[in-house]
Amino acid sequence: MMEKASESTFQDPSAVNEYILHDHGDYCVPDDPEILKKMVGELKKVTHQQSQLLLSLQEALSSKEMQCHSQQEQWENERWILMTDMSQQISQLESEVRNLRCENETLEKKNKDLEEQLERSSGTVLYLGQQVKHQENSRNDGGFCMNNIKNDSKWVRFYTGFDCYEHLTDFLSFLTADHKLCSGKIRKRSEVGPQSALSLEDQLLLVLTRLRLGLLLQDLAFRFRVSESTVSRYWLNWTDLLHARLTQIPILYSARYLDLFEPKRTIQYQGLNCTIMDCTDLFFEVQAKDRTKPASTHPSRNHYLRRGYAIASSNGFITFSSSVPFGIATKVMDGQPQEEIMGGISPPLHFPSFMKNVPVQLTLQQQEMSRQVLSLLSLIDKALNFRFLKCVYPQNMEAQVDRAWVICCYLACLLHDPMGLS
Question: Cα(302)–Cα(290) distance, rounded to whole angstroms?
Answer without folding.
Answer: 9
